[in-house]
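RECORD TYPE: inverse folding
INPUT: structure tokens
STRUCTURE:
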């Protein structure tokens, strides 16, 4: 079968041939429909995040997949089920985090991430997966199912952030999403019915398709070149919730300044090492005297995938059409990995739902 991988020498993703995998006991065989591309894939391709499986000279890419079960192999799944795989798998026979059903809470070294670190991804015509790592979604969502994984990232982060505010009467009205990449834009859409006022920050000038999307969702665009994060309270308002999806490390600290009293920020970005100066005393004081919180959040579990499927079902088709700027077949998949201002969200298509 065909697969898309990065190889030892680095460089652009390439098409390779691999044997079709055989499902082991407890695993199903899935025919891949589509696999999305996000900022993490670009980091993996650049070699700044993740790593190859032990002893291998390549890594099959892809962690945002949707597929159709073709061989249930004695599991509870049925042939034809449309499924989205979770990303983490247990190395060396498992550990307490996987046993509890909380693989997203496992520390580094105690997980592999398919298509990212230690385990091949889903950018292949077929993949196998333990049945408990496959989340069934309605067939109507098959076309957009590759968006369930990134939305699940937001479901987890919001759950953790809100949980940190559960000890008192918190009634958040406004949210600021930092980043107008695919994760930021999906988050604006997912937060739409949870906040009265939404802001989304990028560093682009008009005309720009991401600004159009932000405004079509009824959110206010903030250009960080004109209004830096700490200035948002003066120019707009102090947000009750900040969702950082830029990977721009100063934003973690600027979030503390920008938040409204009693607010919470969720940090999602994965920056490289980066040293810069901050006024630690002022930030510490701000944290304490205004009861603020920051949560870091990575990955997601089955419950977050289920919530994400519901959020996806509620998203307007016109938003999804604008967000997904390209779905590319295997004969011309390179544009799926383009990194320019007209490419927002892309996917590689291995099979359409009709030809499953
Ligand atoms: P992305 O497509 O690279 O998006 C990042 C966006 O942030 C880009 O649109 C970029 O603008 C914008 N940006 C960067 N620096 C900025 C600045 N100083 N001011 C304003 N805007 C800025 O990546 P993504 O897929 O949306 O993911 C976002 C981040 O979340 C990445 O760091 C990724 O690694 C991380 N992530 C984490 C998880 C998790 O589980 N924690 C999951 C998925 C992704 P331009 O396009 O104009 O450069
Ligand atoms: C993926 C997560 C993963 C994280 C860190 C994200 O892009 O969506 O599943 O845990 O990267 O590798
Ligand atoms: Zn991702």
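DESIGNED SEQUENCE:
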């Amino acid at each position: 079968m065909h697969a898309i991988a990065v190889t030892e020498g680095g460089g652009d993703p390439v098409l390779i041939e691999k044997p079709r995998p055989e499902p082991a006991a407890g695993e199903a065989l899935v025919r891949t429909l589509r696999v999305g591309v996000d900022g993490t894939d670009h980091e993996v391709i650049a070699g700044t995040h993740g790593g190859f499986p032990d002893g291998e000279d390549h890594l099959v890419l892809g962690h945002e997949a949707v597929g159709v079960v073709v061989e249930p192999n004695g599991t509870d799944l049925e042939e034809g089920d449309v499924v989205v795989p979770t990303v983490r798998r247990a190395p060396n026979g498992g550990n307490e985090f996987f046993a509890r059903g909380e693989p997203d809470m496992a520390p580094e070294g105690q997980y592999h991430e398919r298509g990212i670190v230690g385990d091949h991804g889903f950018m292949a015509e077929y993949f196998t997966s333990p049945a408990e790592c496959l989340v069934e979604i309605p067939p109507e969502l098959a076309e957009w199912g590759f968006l369930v994984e990134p939305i699940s990232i937001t479901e987890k982060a919001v759950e953790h952030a809100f949980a940190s505010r559960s000890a008192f009467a918190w009634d958040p009205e406004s949210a600021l999403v930092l980043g107008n990449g695919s994760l930021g834009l999906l988050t604006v859409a997912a937060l739409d019915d949870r906040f009265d006022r939404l802001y989304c920050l990028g560093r682009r000038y008009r005309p720009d398709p991401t600004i159009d999307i932000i405004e079509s969702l009824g959110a206010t665009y903030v250009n960080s070149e004109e209004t830096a994060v700490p200035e948002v309270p003066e120019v707009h308002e102090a947000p009750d919730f900040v969702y950082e999806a830029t990977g721009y490390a100063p934003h973690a600290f600027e979030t503390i300044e920008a938040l409204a009293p009693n607010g919470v920020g969720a940090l999602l970005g994965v920056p490289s090492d980066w040293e810069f100066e901050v006024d630690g005393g002022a930030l510490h004081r701000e944290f304490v005297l205004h009861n603020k919180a920051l949560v870091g959040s990575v990955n997601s579990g089955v419950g977050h995938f289920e919530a994400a499927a519901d959020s996806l079902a509620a998203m307007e088709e016109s938003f999804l059409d604008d967000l997904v700027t390209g779905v590319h077949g295997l004969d011309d998949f390179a544009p799926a990995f383009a990194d320019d201002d007209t490419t927002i969200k892309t996917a590689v298509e291995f099979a359409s739902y009709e030809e499953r």
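NOTES: The longest helix spans residues 148-163.
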